[in-house]
Amino acid sequence: MRYLITGAGGMLGTDLRLALTGRDVTALTRADLDVTDLDTVRAAVAGHDVVINASAYTKVDDAESHEAEAYAVNATGAQNLAIAAAESGARLVQVSTDYVFDGSATSPYDESTPLNPISAYGRTKADGERFATAAHPDGTYIVRTAWLYGANGGNFARTMLKLAATHDTVSVVNDQRGQPTWTADLAAQIVTLLDSEAAPGIYHGTNSGEATWFDFAREVFRLAGLDPERVLPTTSDQFVRPAPRPDYSVLGHAAWQRAGIPEMRDWREALSAANDAGVLSAG
What we know:
Elements: E1 2-6, H1 11-19, E2 24-28, H2 38-45, E3 50-53, H3 60-63, H4 67-88, E4 91-97, H5 120-135, E5 140-145, E6 148-149, H6 156-166, E7 170-173, E8 177-178, E9 181-182, H7 183-195, E10 201-204, E11 211-212, H8 213-223, E12 231-234, H9 254-259, H10 267-276
Parallel strand pairs: 1-2, 1-3, 3-4, 4-5, 5-10, 6-9, 7-12
Antiparallel strand pairs: 8-11
């Protein structure tokens, strides 16, 4: 079995490489492969049995004013990889996001919930899902994730600890709810999915449970031996940004149950393990 990882230099891509240690893996970074060029993508995919697309334009706020650039990577790039995978007979894992939903739900989003993005980033990722599935319907796995943190990339937990070193208190929004997700857990879950007999379709790759950013920050402080009371709740309207954020991003995990695969562990357990591994304070 030959695996191709695109976006291999990113936070998730790095952990995918680790999760596939010992296997035949081609790991291509953004500099190695331009996913917006179909001929280049065809050449890269040829000879592989599995393609995991971890490449993405993830600058959510910048996408509001650079939607064409985000679309090229997130939508056209996904379509190109799906076309090439279909032609080569390879399975494709297309990593997507909670931003494909509008955030108006009050209970976990089912995998079949209609898409309704409210930001440019969300629109481009939603089109990436549609294009990949249309181009390779029998071999595409859509894995939606959210609130990622990991060793090799921007990390909310590290930001909180840096602020703790220079501020007596830190204000964090308490009106956005989601699922903090460790990229190492997500990478392992994707490998488990590929090793199983699970059918192609949509899966929600997030740690279980739910939290607000305020809850997340307090748990980071606690694990670091800091007083969680130094984290103060605030509201999203105090941090206005170009791209709107979904208020509610909790993703349901019914597809894992149908596939006979355990859902990912609780976010607190994962965060504790990440802390023990030095991920939260690394970098």
